[in-house]
Amino acid sequence: MNQAPIGIIGGSGLYRLLDAATSEPRVIATPYGRATVVLGEFADRPVAFLTRHGSAHTVAPHLINYRANIWALASLGVTAIVSSSAVGGLTAEYPPGSLVLTDQFIDRTQRRADTFFDRGSAEGGSVQHLAAADPFDPALHRIAGAALLNSGETFLSSGTVVVIQGPRFSTRAESRWFAASGGHIVNMTMYPEVPLAAELGIGTVNIAFVTDSDAGVEAMEPAAGAGSVADSDTVSHRLVLDRLAAAQPRIVAAIETVVRAIPEGYAGLHLIPAAAVAEVLARRVVALDPA
């Protein structure tokens, strides 16, 4: 298999997905370094699977080579990405245990390489401005929502994620600030992954699992009829991993449901001129070290 129209990006806790007996790990050289992708079948579809943090969770959020990952998927013909993410809940309406179809983000990261179009005209590059009002593809979002609803899964159909730099978790003051700014959930990796994919014509749909209540919600007004969220839900690395492990069958089932629902021939996005995208994909790759 050399091509796969659907990419799956696994977040924290999702390091393996495809059957090892029928899949092929591949190290792909890109202009930004190497990316490791596993090609195989999932939900009866050819897919390319990539885990953000490495197979043993060894890559911190701010050190992920987002451009290499997205370029590698684009080079394999991926036009749709289904991603999973671990997130913290910022309001009582997004409690631990919720699945969320993310549809907006607020970027609070720093100094991340967040565009493929960072070359000036003197270097032969073209300036491109990505239209990002709806960063997660609305068409894929609708398809995913309908598929999950029909499957009987309980989920929140929208959510704004505040993407922080990491690897540090939020202070209580920051958590309250993020919620006051309109955030519903908090995460460390959805930026610049999502806009980078959009620059290369790839639509993204994200399935987020709420593992915790971020820095605690002792000052948060609970939803009508709901109790307060205990500080036992305040985020820690151990809590996140434990809850992700328990929820993994549910997360994988949701990914499978969405992958099956993506139409054959889904064409991706057309937000950047095709010639400019082709120029990025034609860039000289960084040679891999000899085996």
Counting helices, strands and paired strands, the structural category is alpha/beta
- Provide the gyration radius in Å: 19 Å
Helix amount, in percent?
Answer: 25-40%
Q: What is the strand tally?
A: 10
The low-confidence parts are: 219-230
Instruction: State the end-to-end distance.
Output: 22 Å
**Major pleated sheet:** 10 strands, mixed
Portion in strands = 15-25%
Q: Count every helix, treating DSSP H or I runs of 4 or more residues as helices.
A: 6
Which shape, going by the Cα principal axes?
A: globular
Pattern of helices and strands: EEEEHEEEHEHEHEHH
Mean pLDDT: 90
Verbal overview:
This protein is of the alpha/beta class and 291 residues long. It has helices spanning 66-75, 138-151, 172-180, 190-199, 237-261, 274-281; strands at 6-10, 24-30, 33-42, 45-51, 80-89, 99-102, 104-108, 160-164, 185-187, 203-212. Strands 1, 2, 3, 4, 5, 6, 7, 8, 9 and 10 form a 10-stranded mixed sheet that branches. Strand 3 (33-42) and strand 4 (45-51) form a beta hairpin. Helix 1 runs parallel beside helix 4 (190-199) and helix 2 (138-151) crosses helix 5 (237-261). The model is unreliable at 219-230 (pLDDT under 50).
